[in-house]
Amino acid sequence: MSKEQSCVLKAWEVTVRKTQQAKKRANSIFGTVSVAPQTDDDTTTTTDDIDDDSSTNRSSIGELYHAERVLPNGDYYTGQWYDSFPHGHGKYLWTDGCMYIGDWYNGKTMGRGKFGWPSGASYEGEFKSGYMDGVGLYTGPSGDTYKGQWVMNLKHGHGIKRFANGDVYDGEWRRGLQESHGKYQWRDGSYYIGEWKNAMICGKGTFIWTDGNRYDGFWDDGLPRGNGTFKWADGSFYVGHWSNDPEEMNGTYYPSGDEGNPEWDPKDVFNNLSEYKICSGERVPVLPSQKKLSVWNSSKRVEKPRRMSVDGRVSVGVDRAFEKMNMWGTESGEGAADIDSTTRRDLDAEMMRLEAEGFIQSLRPTPAPMRLPRAGRKQGETISKGHRNYELMLNLQLGIRHAVGKQAPVVSLDLKHSAFDPKEKVWTRFPPEGTKYTPPHQSTEFKWKDYCPLVFRSLRKLFKVDPADYMLSICGNDALRELSSPGKSGSFFYLTNDDRYMIKTMKKSETKVLLRMLAAYYNHVRAFENTLVIRFYGLHCVKLTGPIQKKVRFVIMGNLFCSEYSIHRRFDLKGSSLGRTTDKPESEINSNTILKDLDLNFIFRLQKAWYQEFIRQVDKDCEFLEQERIMDYSLLVGIHFREASVAGELIPSGARTPIGEFEDETAPRLSGADVDQLLSDPTRWASIRLGGNMPARAERTMRRSDCEFQLVGEPTGEYYEVVMIFGIIDILQDYDISKKLEHAYKSIQYDPTSISAVDPRLYSRRFRDFIFKVFTEDN
């Protein structure tokens, strides 16, 4: 090795050594931040030593130090400080009397801490990204306490709630409400133990009074409903079907001996239970994540010149680092050949080691900044008079209005096997002049068929669909909208004007599959309330009379993307690679475009409780589809980005406006405060569920250029706050002879594991493997 090369290598080694020593700086040349814990010696600086000049100098080079400051808006902070925000351990006092003492990370409460309200309420426990998140104890101003698990300011998981009036609840919570299994004990000693739903006693459970009487059985909305047994302390009991409606109530009384209570009325139980109310508890007035921090902006601070990277982020010294790394020659690469192969190999090994340790992550090619996609038009063409399918729409609306309007309300969700019989269908003739049972209309004569009407009526009740709203959405004055192009299967799709329901025309084979699996589908969605499988509301057929006698079968489904949030990105994910890219040029892609597996450039990180529930439900749903020999289904994902600039550029989470620059407060964006408002309003909690309006973080990924079919890209560390909507769709394709032939034919030309048409067992395993790589736990 020449003397010049030796000097160059030494200079490079000095650069690497300095980088390792400076890795805890916010703007190090290798772009990583690591804060070492401070010792007592580090925190003994007095306030006299922290004058404006010294704090300015320290903050300008990005070190962690102790500060005591009265901020511009009157807030007070004392503790560890980094750059322009609390970072480490510190105490923050707001002017309204709220106070936080604990751990901070880049201006957000993160770790353990205690938050106090001026009302006397307090929370002590774990925080994450500004939210009460983890295990903690909340004490309300009137004496209510809750000790247990939290997720994003909501009680979620196991916890014990002690109410000020003496009642106690010990059990599971979901989204701030009692859910699943728990025990509620009233102050007089009576208690209920069993299932809960949306803070109401619902499901199977036992109520025990202090006098020894008890009820074991099913409940609905806090009252006995269904099969149950009431037992007295003397051993006598009553068995029957319970209901608040006297006409539905029936049962048998069994005395314990010769003496009984023949005059006892089951209604006495309902009257007695009316005295036992479930406390709603207190509402947190202001959530910790809603508290804003005042940014320190010293007039004496002198900013060093900073270089803007290609994605708009500020960096320091990156160009200098590249200069030192490229000392072997000019920009054209001259002189690089002067290094012998051993030296080159040693340098490559050292670079790989540093990259693995995270020191040179910022030296990789930086992706271009992300922008909000171009907004698409409202989907679909309105079906007005003169449209080729106008009469079909009228027939459909007439049939549904007739079918739903004449049906009696569902009494019980327990259906007989005969209700699922494919022959269980009702034909109705609709002549233009009308009949005794059908209204006159302006369309041509047609026949209407309802498949398994009792089953779909029960499904609509199970999915909490109001019959009047259902008819109004589909059969109201507003016309349906036909999507511009049919799907791959040749089916046509129609949307209701309020976007709540989607109507899909069906092939005969798909109708047979749905009817075959209908009983299993019904049992599955009934057993798993949070199932991600698409919701079916009705299966019908219109038969046009005349010489052609054409039959049009269609199914009514829920529209997955009917949400209060605008959908910015849509992905259809299967876990296969062959043909799984969009065929549109970049200029034609907008917010309505359905992208595919190889277009996906994110990993979605869910809160721990949500992620655990997600993997459990995906496993259950895939097992159900596998048992029914279904394949070729996909996970449809919609993403709403919560923060974007006025120019339309997406703002990564943790990105802040540089000191001294103006941030437009009127920019049209959905900030974290909007989600806080959603979470703080109990009437809107129901809109957040697994797969629906879920807050999450999306980490951007980049695929390697040398790997054409890399399904999941490499994480970049660039995160975006998002709201997610997702569900499993296209579940009516079984592995029939046509799919087996497709698999055999394509396997000759392509990798058999890359194609969509595979055995349901293999499809389910591949689908889950891929989805569990794309969705991960947010650590």
What does this structure look like?
It comes from Camelina sativa (False flax). Its EC number is 2.7.1.68. Residues 382-775 form the PIPK domain. A hairpin with a 6-residue loop joins strand 26 and strand 27 (551-558). This protein has a 17-stranded antiparallel β-sheet, covered by helices on one side. The longest helix is centred in the middle third of the chain and has 20 residues, at 508-527. It is globular, with a radius of gyration of 32 Å. Helix 6 (390-406) packs antiparallel against helix 8 (467-475) and helix 10 (608-627) packs antiparallel against helix 13 (760-774). It contains 13 helices and 34 strands. It is of the alpha+beta class and 779 residues long. The protein starts with a helix and ends with a strand.
Note the main attributes of this structure.
single chain, 779 residues, alpha+beta, 17-stranded antiparallel beta sheet, 13 helices, 22% helix, kinase, transferase, nucleotide-binding, repeat, PIno-4-P-5_kinase_pln
Mind sketching the topology for me?
Blueprint: H1 3-21, H2 52-60, E1 64-70, E2 76-82, E3 85-93, E4 99-105, E5 108-116, E6 122-128, E7 131-139, E8 145-151, E9 154-162, E10 168-174, E11 177-185, E12 191-197, E13 200-208, E14 214-220, E15 223-231, E16 237-242, E17 250-254, H3 267-273, E18 307-308, E19 314-315, H4 318-325, H5 341-356, E20 381-382, H6 390-406, E21 425-430, E22 446-451, H7 453-462, H8 467-475, E23 481-482, E24 493-495, E25 501-506, H9 508-527, E26 536-544, E27 551-558, E28 569-573, E29 594-595, E30 602-606, H10 608-627, E31 634-641, H11 672-680, E32 694-702, E33 714-729, H12 737-749, H13 760-774, E34 775-777
Parallel strand pairs: 28-29, 30-34
Antiparallel strand pairs: 1-2, 2-3, 3-4, 4-5, 5-6, 6-7, 7-8, 8-9, 9-10, 10-11, 11-12, 12-13, 13-14, 14-15, 15-16, 16-17, 18-19, 20-23, 21-22, 22-26, 23-24, 24-25, 25-27, 26-27, 28-31, 30-32, 31-33, 32-33
